């Protein structure tokens, strides 16, 4: 099979590799679509992301879907031919985090496209059968792949406690910010304010359900967002984090999703005096059934988020396309050259 391999920083090569054999509890998936994530871009451009450093060749891509073509000995062979969305993680079954149902926090996690575990910019992958989630025929291949960033949005909504009638502030109108805006609509939020420095991205947010958008540099920003029920940062910008926390009503909730600097100053007095809850999101757990239901019902539109498609030999171009503010989500189709 062909695989697009990151050899070192900013160097990708398509290589021939053996098709993997599924273990007893795994399925083999022919990959049909893979979304490009910001983490892929960081590994490509910088060679690292936080504490993760690319020291050996690595296949990027963790937002993926495809068709099951083979199964391990413990998996029902009737699943062959099933179209699936892949939850790209393999936690320990015995860690305290997994046993609490918080398997995304398992310190021994094997996760697609993180150094040590290859991702899905290749023609075939294996995954434990329970993390290959069946999707209905009404869900496209692209949407099956993008259940992964939608799952980040669902995990965020749960942490933020989105509920009918809420006023929600989202800073950052990239693909995750837009997915969160769509989920906020689905959860019944009445006012969804999205901020971004790029007008193209603000316009995109409005088309996906934002009731208002604002330039964070505008002198009207503070007044436009004052008193929101929940704040989600999907930008990683320190200034956005501070401004969003300050905007919360008393007992409001802030959820930090975007990855930026490892440390930023926070408005501690506001957090204490208003009894704010400030938390983070790291991936997701138990989100795929909700994601599939939201897409299948038409309440979230993932297909319209796709702004470009690329073949396996065009992975570098797919990664570089994310620098264009008009790009929402680029998708690699490994079946294409």
Automatic annotation (TrEMBL):
Example of a GO MF term: oxidoreductase activity, acting on the CH-OH group of donors, NAD or NADP as acceptor
Key words of the record: Metal-binding, Oxidoreductase, Zinc
Keyword set includes Coiled coil: no
Pfam families membership: ADH_N, ADH_zinc_N
SMART domains referenced in this protein's UniProt entry, alphabetically: PKS_ER (SM00829)
Cofactor(s) required, per the database record: Zn(2+)
Domain Enoyl reductase (ER) residue range list: 8-332
Matching InterPro entries: ADH-like_C, ADH-like_N, ADH_Zn_CS, ER, GroES-like_sf, NAD(P)-bd_dom_sf, SDH-like
Family, similarity comment: Belongs to the zinc-containing alcohol dehydrogenase family.
Protein name, as recorded: NAD(P)-dependent alcohol dehydrogenase
Source organism of the structure: Microbacterium caowuchunii
């Amino acid at each position: 099979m062909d695989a697009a391999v990151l050899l070192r920083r900013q160097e990708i090569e398509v290589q021939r590799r053996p098709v993997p054999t599924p273990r007893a509890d795994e399925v083999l998936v022919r990959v049909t679509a893979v979304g490009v994530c910001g983490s892929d871009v960081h590994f490509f451009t910088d060679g690292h992301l936080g504490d993760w450093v690319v020291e050996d060749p690595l296949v990027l891509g963790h937002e993926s879907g495809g068709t099951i073509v083979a199964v391990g000995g413990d998996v029902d062979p009737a699943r062959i031919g099933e179209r699936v969305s892949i939850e790209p993680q393999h936690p320990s079954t015995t860690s305290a985090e997994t046993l609490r149902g918080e398997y995304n926090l398992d310190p021994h996690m094997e996760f697609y496209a993180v150094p040590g575990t290859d991702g899905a910019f290749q023609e075939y992958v294996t995954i434990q059968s329970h993390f290959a989630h069946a999707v209905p025929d009404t869900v496209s291949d692209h949407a099956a792949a993008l259940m992964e960033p939608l799952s980040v949005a669902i995990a965020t909504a749960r942490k933020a406690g989105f509920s009918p009638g809420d006023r929600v502030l989202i800073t950052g109108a990239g693909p995750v910010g837009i997915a969160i805006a769509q989920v906020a609509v689905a959860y019944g939020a009445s006012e969804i304010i999205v901020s971004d420095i790029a007008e193209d991205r603000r316009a995109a947010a409005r088309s996906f359900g934002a009731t208002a958008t604002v330039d964070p540099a505008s002198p009207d920003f503070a007044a436009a967002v004052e008193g929101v029920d929940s704040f989600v940062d999907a930008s990683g910008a320190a200034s956005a984090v501070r401004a969003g926390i300050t905007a919360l009503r008393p007992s409001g909730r802030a959820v930090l999703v975007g990855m930026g600097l490892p440390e930023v100053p926070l408005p501690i007095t506001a957090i204490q005096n208003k009894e704010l809850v400030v938390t983070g999101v790291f991936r997701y757990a138990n989100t795929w059934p909700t994601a599939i239901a939201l897409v299948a019902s038409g309440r979230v539109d993932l297909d319209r988020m796709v702004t470009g498609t690329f073949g396996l030999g065009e992975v570098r171009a797919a990664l570089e396309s994310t620098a264009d503010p008009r790009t929402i989500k680029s998708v690699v189709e490994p079946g294409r050259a």
